[in-house]
């Protein structure tokens, strides 16, 4: 397999691996473990946004001198605004977490809640797929400052981030009466949009390359928004912050090392 195939498949495999937890765990994912994984995912995404997206975006605009931050700033703000608008039409992960099921709640409402979570995660995976596609397009063009190792590091980082997302979809589905295979399938499908979004982005390479710094920073803004708006509030609900902080720090450190070592 070449770097393109690896880059496209690795993030999806992260989601599928997380979803496969349903085959090995009989109960819902442990609360502390879930908090740790969400914090870890947040650290990975923030580090990836800085080292794999924002820094390359500014390096590509070196000819602008002291104004080289403009493409990165513009794209970053647009990425945040895009996700803000997207959140207006999709449910918030932490909002659903703050409304846990009561004993008298019907199975239909429980399934509806999990399906809303599935929809939210799926839609939020689209910008991540675009990020992978943008970096891969830049690497394959041979005319940018993005190496194949940079693309691989970002794909690995997003795959790590996708692991807990797959688990927090498949596990509740199984406890609500779905078969393990069906729960695994839904969890995996939430990540299937990433390679699709990446492929579409790569096919548009000729249009993207002139504006690559803007697209890279757009992806960074989208990823940072997801961390602040969804992952961190969910991981620190009820003021339990220690596990999330440890996970975030480890995730950030690992992604930083991956990006520098592989780059």
Protein topology:
Layout: H1 3-19, H2 31-60, H3 69-89, H4 93-97, H5 107-141, H6 148-175, H7 180-203, H8 205-208, H9 212-235, H10 242-262
Written description of the protein model:
- Helix 2 packs parallel to helix 10, helix 5 (107-141) runs antiparallel to helix 9 and helix 6 packs antiparallel against helix 10.
- By secondary structure, this protein is mostly helical.
- The protein is globular and about 55 Å long.
- The model is unreliable at 100-108 (pLDDT under 50).
- Helices cover 79% and strands 0% of the residues.
- It contains ten helices and no strands.
Summarize the structure.
With 263 residues, the protein is mainly α. Helix 1 runs antiparallel to helix 7. The longest helix is centred in the middle third of the chain and has 35 residues.
Count every helix, treating DSSP H or I runs of 4 or more residues as helices.
Answer: 10
- Compressed to H and E, one letter per element, the order equals HHHHHHHHHH
- Tell me what portion of residues adopts beta-strand conformation: under 5%
Determine Rg (CA atoms, Å). Answer: 18 Å
| Helical amount | over 70%
**Quick check: average pLDDT?**
80
Give the CA-based shape.
globular
Low-confidence stretches: 100-108
Query: What is the number of beta strands?
Result: 0
Query: Largest sheet, if any?
Result: none
Measure the end-to-end span. Answer: 19 Å
Structural class: mainly alpha
